[in-house]
Batch of 2 targets.
Target 1
Amino acid sequence: MAVYVDDLFATSPSREWPYPCAAHLVGDTEEELHRFAATIGLHRRWFQGTRYDLTALRRLAAVKAGAVQVSQRRMAKLLISLNPRSGAATQIPYRGQRYRVTPPGQRNPTKDKRNQSGQKT
């Protein structure tokens, strides 16, 4: 069993995440992930369903504690394997936003405002 951490990536600081970069921490099992997170000082309430978000300093602590470094692509595959419903076609709403997934080749009626004759309004 292992715990994985991906590369740092740039973020836009906000009220919820006031840091310029972030990384993700995931584990083979949720129990192992929580145990590891506690050893590097993460609170369980910071758990994001399948992962923890890390600051640059927490990422460094995770690597020093033995987390396996992986690329962002590998991390995406790990996250999808942990939660199959979070595949590329699924978008998770954030703070009240609504996303509607439109199949390829179809117009999204909420984005594309066209009248009956097919002209944009």
Target 2
Amino acid sequence: MNPFVYCVVGWALLAPFAALAQDQKYLEYLTTEDERHHLKNRLVLRDEVRGFAGLSGRMWVVEPDGRWSFVALRSAGTGKVKEVTQQTGQLTPDELVALAKDLATHDLAGLPVKHGESPRINPHRIVLKFGDKEMVLNGIIPRRKNETTREIIAKSAPSQDTAGATIWTRWGALAHSIESRTASPRS
């Protein structure tokens, strides 16, 4: 048989296994305890602004077992931040799996540690943390009333034909996945 035919037949036989491996990528973000899925690490999304009075903003936290909280960040003076819990809840096992699938689909682990330029005055940034890995998206415009984190990321992003523009899209999708599952208020 022709080597080209072997190659085509081999690819046709192996392609379904490659797709299966891609479909299972979300398992990298999960562990199983007591026959239930848990995230491997704590997941944190922070929308923060640093000003002359200190740091303020919002934070969404998803614990490995699915407990979540929405927290207001307020300046507490001398560089300290006061965390005020606004809402709490619990993700179902199916919601945890769906969240892990979103983390895999948008390649959370592949995000650069820092992206975007940080302004010198009142820098606004989004921070994602999963376990020990922390990623920062700089250059975010100020939040307006009723805007989601995904919306302010989209408004802050460079045009789609700019190098690195897809990173902003991934950030927006990841922020939406976390924020929408933790029922934060829109204000």
